[in-house]
Every structure is written in structure tokens, then in C-alpha cells.
Predict the structure.
Amino acid sequence: MNDKPAIPQAETFDPAAHGWEEIFNHTAFGDLVGPIWRRADGDRLRFGFIVAPKHLNRAGNLHGGMLMTLADQSMAMTARAASGAKSHATIELNIQFVGGVKLGEFVESHPEVVRATRSLVFMQAKMFVGTRAVVTTNGIWKILEA
């Protein structure tokens, strides 16, 4: 007998049917947290994932660590594109959780470059489930190549 309450699940969203492409990063961590999806929206990149049971915390909500992972990865890939595909590293990441996320929902990250110098890329992103804001975040990436 399972005495845990059922976790409500959102209607399933199919990213591929809506023009998203799966990112294959071929790392154990990427396999653990993914799949993460990417889509071009004009000249901007968008990233997202569907909340799976592996992403939930004890309360049955999306774990904040997964939102931090999406923030880091989406802003890093956008910073890399802005720096001409140079290697870089996250040196600061700030995040504000402004809404909860449930099983089956599709979380979408909208990263953008705030400023880029020869050695640093300053980023910000907002994350949404549909039109509902769930995260605001910003960070700094150090460009490692000259």
C-alpha cells in the first residue's frame, strides 16, 4: 500500500511538436537532469524542460536546484554564443524563486546578454511556465580564452 498522496500532473507538452530541439551534451550530469530543449525565437535562444518525477522535492514541487541548473545552462549557452563560442566559466549566479512549478509543466528560460566585455559576459534570464513567471536570475561568466 502506498500512503503518499498522488502528485497532480500538468497536461503533457511535446516540445518537439512545437519547434524545440533536444540538447545532447553527452555528460552524466546532462543525462541525469535532462532532457533540456532549445529553440530560436528570432535572434534569441530559449531553453526549457518538462518537469519529471526525478526533478521533484519532498513536497512534490519542482526542486529549486533544477531551476538553478536551467538558469546556469541557459545563460552559459547564450553567453558562449555571444562570445564567439569561447570557453567560459560561471563566476556568479543569483536567483529569485517567484513561483512554484508542478510535475509535467514545461519551464521555459529566456536568457539575454546584458553586457559583454573582452573578459566577462553579464547575463539575466526570466523563466516561465506559460505566461506565469517562476524565476528571475542574473549572473556573470568569465571568458577563459583571449
